[in-house]
Amino acid sequence: MRRDRWRLLLVAVVVLAALFMVFPIKGRINLGLDLKGGAHIVLQAKDTADSKVTEDSLERLLAVLRNRVDQFGVAEPVIQREGADRIIVDLPGIQDPDAALDLIGKTALLEFRAVVTSTSPVPPAAERKNYDSDEEFEKAQARWNEAVKAIDAQKEELERQSASVEGGMVAKSDEGRFYLLGTVLVGGKDLIDAKTQYDHLGRPVVALSFSSEGSKLFDAATFANVGKQIAIVLDGVVISAPVVQERITGGHAQISGRFSPAEAGRLSIMLRAGALPVAVDVIENRSVGPSLGEDSIRAGIQAGLVGAALVFLFMLIYYRYLGLAADAALAVAILLVFAGLISLKATLTLPGIAGIVLTIGMAVDGNVLIYERMREELRSGKTPMASVDAGFKKALVTILDANITTLIAAAVLFYFGSGPVRGFAVTLSVGIVAGVFCNVVVTRTILQLFMSARAAKAAARS
Amino acid sequence: MKTFYIDFMKYRRLSLMASLVLVVVSLGLVAIRGLNLGIDFTGGNVLQVEFPGGASVGDVREILASVGQEGAVIQAYSDTGMIVRTGSDDDKARESVTSALKAKYPDMHIVGIEKVGPVVGAELRREAMIALGLALGGILIYISVRFQFRFAVVSVLALVHDSIITLGIFSLTGMEISSSFIAAILTIVGYSLNDSIVVLDRVRENWRTLKTDGIITLLNNSINETLSRTINTSLTTLLPLAALFLWGGHVLRGFSFALLIGIIVGTYSSIFVVASLLAGWWTKSPQKA
Fold it and tell me: Is A163 helix (H, G, I), strand (E, B) or coil?
């Protein structure tokens, strides 16, 4: 009797603490990027001829990425190293996944180079709607193929020549023109600032300010190239190649290209934060818009409610008043799962929601085992009170064995899984522990309350 | 007492043959038909796009073909939403797809992007195998310690059986296998064992009757005594999983499908594989009780 009181007290305290922790639930659970929306990007640093991946270059890479993300204005970003040469960037709440990828994955190596010579641009490809008949369209396509071939030939010629030019390289422009470029005159490392401005036509441009060293270099370069082209090269692509009208002193320049205001803004950020010290590959990118995350949450809640209703009904129909106790214990188990997730500061992911729904089904398994055992004990002639005791005692071992093996699988999953899958392992584990507690402690307490109420009733009747 | 009693062990050779056939057919399906591996394993690009004004899969396919993505897999998941999967993980290819679609449908917007490089996919495959091996090893040890080595071996064989048949059904239906499938298989491994444990637990409890009744009767008694548990525990877990499959959204559909199959097969195998194998093993080489 004394133990029963303690059990009741324990359950009351646990339930109250859980209620206090869970309500109001809004904002208390960490949602994963797949639910609240955001970008998860994994970068792999790679060796190039110019720069090797070293401890030092990786640290600088992290610093540049942090700088870029901070300037872009993302709340609570996560930027961390993984293993020897990988970096994980998590950007919650990103609206435009493409923009995020652009900001993170681009090296942003800016160079001003002398232009030796260039090919003509590739003309736009023929489109069927501009021609009256298929024949004419085919002819136009043939002409276009010829033009492309001719330019390819010119490009190969440029590549042959580049060997004899000091620091020579062949680069393509946005419009499809190939340039043979000379040495680097000024580079992005000589910048002290980059800002988005608008030119007199209202087009976005990136205004650059050079350091004193850079100003000198730029001054000398423009002086030496008056009347000639200087190419502005970003990550090996020619953005523009203006003709130098006059010598430029004072260390200011601007880049006009065909970019949108948003692109100009990102380019400014990247130029201010500096180029990535090593080349990177985006080896994984998972971006979820906020609307998709909301849909997932809604669907998960719906499935959870329907699933819970089905289990509630099944237990009630099959086990009657015992089922009612199981249902009450199940409600406590669900409450405890949320309380557990909140107190562990775990991240709830979409598979995690699936884990909670699965828990709803698994949590009553213990009740089934206990009740079936109680029925057996009753059949063997024990009193109801004694069968309840024996049912709980004998089913406990089975419940523990069954749940520990599931926990083994969940632990392996937690260790190996990444992001969302790990979220599933966490909810599954929390669900198993909460389920076992509710089976053996909460259910028993509820049955005790039932039986003492019955006894009181019976006493009152007699 | 129970009003019915099924002589399960009478069918043990038949059921083991059936299981063997299912496993062989599943392995054959996986080998010949293959599995529809998602980009988590193969690498590639998946775009999830919404067309508020609606769009037809045929039109989208044509637009993609015009930018050189004839091989893209396009799947509509609602009236306005589509999933586009391209084989390459090239960012340029993705950009050309989005700009071509934007040109035709200006109100189109991207709700999700998934890009996985081939390196990551290869790592995931290796890690999945290690994880499965570790989980099975851990369970083998646990059951050996808590029960007997033979119980552990037959239980793990049943888990392998369940996993292979689940894979076979995925091969048959062509459902996509993503990284959450690994979570599903490991959960099946952990959970479908529960039914076996319930039966084995009763076998352990009835062990003293081995001398008088023999292994066949012992197993039959144990299965029959625990039959309502085996069925009810599986049923209560299948109910919410069915809800998840039907209403949980398209992202979780493959995951819940795998669990549904795995748990159904697992319930069957706890009786017809675990007990049958144990009976066969025991009659061939009895151990001292």
Answer: coil
